[in-house]
Amino acid sequence: MSYRAHFRCTAGCSGEYPLDQVIYRCPQCSDLLEVVHDMDQLRDRSAAAWMKVFDDRYLRTQWPYGSGVWGKKEWVQPHLRDENIVSMYEGGSNLFWAERHGRGLGLGDLWVKQCGNSHTGSFKDLGMTVLVSTVKQMIADGKPIRAIACASTGDTSAALAAYAAAAGIKAMVLLPRGKVSTAQLVQPLANGATVLALDTDFDGCMAIVQRLAEEEGVYLANSMNSLRLEGQKTVAIEIVQQFEWQVPDWVIIPGGNLGNVSALGAGFLMMQALGVIAKLPRICVAQAEAANPLFQSYQDGFERFVPVTARRTHASAIQIGNPVSFKKAIRTLQRFGGVVEQASEAELADAAARADRTGMFNCPHTGVALAALEKLCARGAIRQGDRVVVISTANGLKFTDFKTLYHEAALADVPSPKLANAPLVLPSHYASVRDAVRKVLD
After folding, report:
1. Would you say the pTM of this structure is higher than 0.85?
2. Residue 49: inside a domain, yes or no?
3. CATH number for the domain including 319?
4. Whole-angstrom Cα distance, residue 423 to residue 435?
5. Is 106 inside any structural domain?
6. Which of 71, 246, 297, 435 has its CA 20 to 30 A from that of 90?
7. 37 near 274, Cβ under 8 Å?
8. For residue 1, what pLDDT is reported?
9. Are 185 and 195 in contact (CB under 8 A)?
10. For 291-339, how does the pLDDT look when each residue is reduced to its tens digit (9 = 90+)?
11. How far is it, in rounded angstroms, from Cα 220 to Cα 177?
12. Considering only CA atoms, which of 155, 190, 186, 157 is closest in space to residue 171?
């Protein structure tokens, strides 16, 4: 069967728009759009049949279904022709049983979804494969798209540059100068993207790239484009699949531009609507205290949402004060019994280091989520028997300066790191080494 999907206004305005139309907001009210699938068509298979289809494809070699995203193609972008799919076999990332770290928190069922174990080192690959594949088909069908552009704090630019390079499409990325790690900066440079480093923050870059999309014939690749969220929603489906189609009790998600929370929510809701799952998890969005507009709105019962000027945070990918997807995020949290937590710079750094001591190597954004987990456990919101999944958004190897400075006790805003572990500098004498070893072993 040929399945159908289209864009629709998130605020409920009338009208449907094809997925290959260059459109980002509702023409009637300017709210964001979402991708809506023909659920009656998808019910031509039973829940058990869909689970078997997805399990049979999972991490296999048949193109393009071995990808964690394209193995769910009918639920993501059914209109795409296979020859236009641009895939790095994204998804299929490790669901890490954090048994030792969980035990330290009084939890026996703690898991970390390692989305940073992906081609460019972050969860952004999951959305970018969908967006770039769609643009490739649009260009093949004659749409006059000259390039794909994004504003980024690092990871989005890396994903866009890699997938656009594979597709042979020009990529342009706008970054806040001096506010991304060296590893993140070099990725789009290496892939041949045009990199514009601007003297502003992410919100300033976002304002400019939206204008470029309106005036210069470039296609917008930020998460306000709901094509991205279609790929990211497969994280929720994959988590349930990895648990043999069982639903966790809690999912904790770092929140910046807030697209990921609505994306995962959409994945869970789609599974529920098609009978694959019978319940929904609770969701926590974790924000850095330096960039916490959603947390502040949550404190006010979501009665109002006021953008903030984001202050510098080591969790640079979520240093966003005016997130474009805040309405979607609030709607998702209300549906999922959600909560919002925040973490100071010291809390996120210590939480990342504490989990590292049990075998992980966490990025600072995952540190924000881990700090939120500690707070939820401490106040009893998460109980001992709950199954909890923390979403790790990026590979810790992108943030080696953050790690190094922490262990040297030289990290800004973290004057007293609780778990600093600097190397022991010793002369090349056996006695000196022996004495140091004895101190450790005693």
Report:
1. yes
2. no
3. 3.40.50.1100
4. 15
5. yes
6. 246
7. no
8. 65
9. yes
10. 999 999 999 999 999 999 999 999 998 999 999 899 999 999 999 999 9
11. 20
12. 157
